[in-house]
Design brief:
3 helices; about 90 residues; 5 strands; three-stranded antiparallel sheet
C-alpha cells in the first residue's frame, strides 16, 4: 500500500435524540415531506435531513425535546407517525 492511499473516511452525523455523533451509516435519516417526518431509508429525499439512531430511546428523546421542528426549521407540530412506525418495526 502506497503512502498516498488511505481508507475512505465515513461521514459523521449527530443524533437529534441523544446528541451523540455516529457514523452516518448507523443513523436513520429523517426528511420532511409536507408536514410529516418520514424515514428516508435510501437517503435520496430532497431537503434538509435530520438524523436519529433507529432505537426507540433516541426517538422518544427527540420527540420530548421537540428536536424535529427545530432541525427542519418548521413552525408548529409535525406528524411523526410514519417515523414511529419505522423505528418500532426495526428495533427495540
Amino acid at each position: 500500500m502506497s503512502g498516498r492511499t488511505s481508507p475512505r473516511a465515513c461521514p459523521e452525523r449527530t443524533c437529534v435524540g441523544c446528541r451523540r455523533r455516529s457514523a452516518q451509516n448507523d443513523l436513520l435519516r429523517v426528511a420532511l415531506v409536507g408536514n410529516s417526518c418520514v424515514p428516508d431509508l435510501r437517503g435520496t429525499l430532497p431537503g434538509r435531513g435530520a438524523y436519529v439512531h433507529p432505537v426507540s430511546a433516541c426517538l422518544e428523546s427527540a420527540l420530548r425535546r421537540r428536536a424535529f421542528p427545530r432541525a427542519f426549521r418548521a413552525t408548529g407540530a409535525l406528524d411523526t407517525a410514519p417515523l414511529e412506525r419505522q423505528v418500532g418495526a426495526s428495533g427495540p
